[in-house]
Every structure is written in C-alpha cells, then in structure tokens.
Structure prediction request, 463 residues.
Amino acid sequence: MKNKDLKNNIMKTIKDGDVQMHSKQFFLGKALLSIVGITFIILAILFLGSFIVFMTSQSSAWELTKFGTAGIISFITSLPWIILGVGLLLIGMLAKLIQKYPFAYHKPIVASIAIIVAVSVGGGYAVAQTSFHKNINNHIETGKLKAAAPLYKRAQKHNPKNLHAGIISEIFEDGFTMKTRQYDSIHVIVSDDTKKPPQYEPATEDKISVFGKIKNEKIHARGIKPISKKREIKKPRNQVKASDKREHIKPNPQDIRKKQHRIRKIR
Amino acid sequence: MTDEDIAKKVQSGDIEAFGQLVERYEAKMQRYIKRFLYSYEDAQDTVQDVFIKAYTNIQNFNATRKFSPWLYRIAHNTSINLIKKRGKEALPFFDPDTLFPHPVAKQKTDDAWNEQELRAAIDSCLDKLKPNYREPLILYYFEDMDYKSISDVLHIPTSTVGVRINRAKKKLREIYNKPFTNASLREARYERRSNL
Prediction:
C-alpha cells in the first residue's frame, strides 16, 4: 500500500506540473558551457606553461641546469613561482572539473594530474618553440596588446640568480673580463674548482655563461660554459640606449610625406 | 522492455512510462536509502526526491548506457546532500583513497566470513561505519553491484572501491573483535531493532 502511495504521489506531482522535465537543450547548454570552461582552462595552462619556457629561455635560466646541483637549485629558485602557482591552481581546477567524466574518475586523481602536467609541459614546450610569444612580444614593443604588456615586461626583467652571460673582452692569468648585459666590464676568476667543459679554454670574443656570485664587480666562477655564437646576448630593457631604440622605430609614412613636402617648398 | 527503452519513452514525452520505472526501482531505492540513511527521519522523503530528480533530469540520461547506475548516482547525491544538510555525520572534504593507485582487490566471497553472517553483521553495524565505508558495502552486499558499477555510482576509481570495502570489513572486525557467531549476531540485531 505504502509503495503504491509513493508511485501515485510521484506521478501526481509530475502530472500536476509541480515539477518540470529539463529540456535536452538545457543539458546541451550545460555540457557546452562545461566544455568551453575546460577548453579555456587547458588553453590558459598551455599559455602559462609555454610562457614559463619562453621566459626562462629568454633569460638563459636553462643554462643554470648545466652547472650541477648548485645550478639546478639556482634554476629552481629563479623560476617565476607566482605564474607557476597560478598554473598549478588551474591544473587543480581542471582535475576537479573533469572528475565527473568516466575517463577521469576511473583513474586515481594523481594519475589524472600526472597526465595533465605531462600534457601541459609537453604542449607548453611545443608552443614555446613557435614564434607565438615572440610575436606577442613584438606587438607589445610597438605599443599594441597593452593588456599583456606587464606579463611580458616581467619576462624581460627576469634575471636568474648567479647567472651571467656575456662576451669575453680580455684574458688574464686568473681568468678573464667580460662584457655583460649589465656591466661594461666584469672580472671572472676561474680556479681549479670551476666547472667547465673538458678541453675548453676561454678566448676573447667568446660568448660565455658564468655561474657564480658577483661581489665587488668580480665573479668567483663556480662554472663556465661557452654559448653558441649565433645566440644573441640582449641588453636589459632599462639599459637600451635611445639611439638603439630609434633603429627599431619604423618611420611614419605621413611624416615622410610632410618632410618631402617641406623640402620641395624650400627648393 | 529494458529500463533503457522505458527511459527513452519518457524522454520522448511518455510520462506514464516513468511510472513503470518507479515501480521497478522503488523497492531497491527504499532498501538502499534506508540503509544508507538509517538514522535519518526523512529517508522516506529522500526516495521520492530521487525519483523526482530522475524525472527532471531524464533528458540527461544517455540511453546507450545502463539506467541503474545512473539512478543510483542520483540517489547517492541526494543522500550525501541530506547528510551534509543535517550535519550529523562528518563527510571528508577530500578522500586520500582516491588520490593514489591501489592494486585492484579481487571480487570474491570472503572465506573467513560466512556471506550471510557478513550481511547480517553489516546490517547491524551500519551506525558504526562512516558514510564513505558504509555506502560501498551496501552497494556490494545488498544491491549486488560489481566494483565497476559501484565506481560509476560513487565516481571513484574501481581500485578505491575494493580498498573501501576491505577497510570497511576490517572496521567491522574491529567492532566485533571476535569471530561471528549466530548468538552475537542475534544480539546485535536485537540491539539495532530496539534502537529503531
């Protein structure tokens, strides 16, 4: 009797219109919204991942990993931890969002997170190899994409701790002097403890990366490594001379026309 | 006619067909919810809520999949919401069991425990088990679901289902702290009945 009551109550509630069946479109909309959200988070993770790779390669921070344990520790501390934190937060959000799908909840959360991290690192690295970030950076240099400017300016200012890249200007008995992004001349002391590639002897005009603490414009090098000659050693943004900047500014066609008009008038 | 066929009919607008689904599942839902929410006065209302929610969300049901785990999932969510609302029992915000992979425990009848004795023991000790251990035991021993179906209802990995069932059984052993005898079970049952 009680069971019959339950069925009758339910059917009465439905027939009276007290409850309405959600339409298929409602669920399609929800699914679409969920997919859009997930896609957006995946793209954001890929963007941040590739940006970190771009940032560290711009500042040559990867070079640190070639100087042993101390170098790796220095590399880890020089990582952009705020951006990395935001990325990890998004990875956590994504892992939580996909938990409603069988492909995710059938696996332990750690497995889902490991897959997301692997895809983010691989995808981020792949995106960083394209000209995507360089193009955005170029747009920012010409005054476009102002919203992204603070992030990319941060990338340009990123300076890995204890890593100095420069060009050797003079060789001495105890080492050499080199010209870096920040210093016109800095003395590098090379000792027996300095790690360097076997059979490498520094020579003038060599592009080189030096790992070691700077004190009184001297670096007691813990490691030195030659850099490929093709690789550009950029000047920091605040040290670019006005004359250098002028080279990058394209002349305005209107200005050229006005100038030509003025010359014709004088003639 | 299968449950999925009836669900399809409801999706295409046949409201009366939903009555058939209610008839087929009301006993199962009452049994499951009464055990899971054994100490909750509003367990009976929850059964009705489950069917109402199933009706409003029926368009979200994928008829190529099984209807039963879908309905049990709604029952699980509704029950969990009630437990949270009442605040009588603590639900873990995060379950570490779902974090790491576990070796999948084989589904088999327990040699040390007689199946019937075990069912009776679970029935009499439900109040001493946490909801996250209570539920897989109910689904496995009383609703005759396999690990895969339980995993679909609870949205946890299959290996975690095995871990929870094993831990719940271990907990049961600790509660009893002695081998099951018909006398101890009778005693436990009597105690539970008198509590109800």
About this structure: The CA atoms of residues 82 and 88 of chain A lie 10 Å apart. The mean pLDDT of chain A is 83. The radius of gyration of chain A is 29 Å. DSSP finds ten helices and seven strands in chain A.
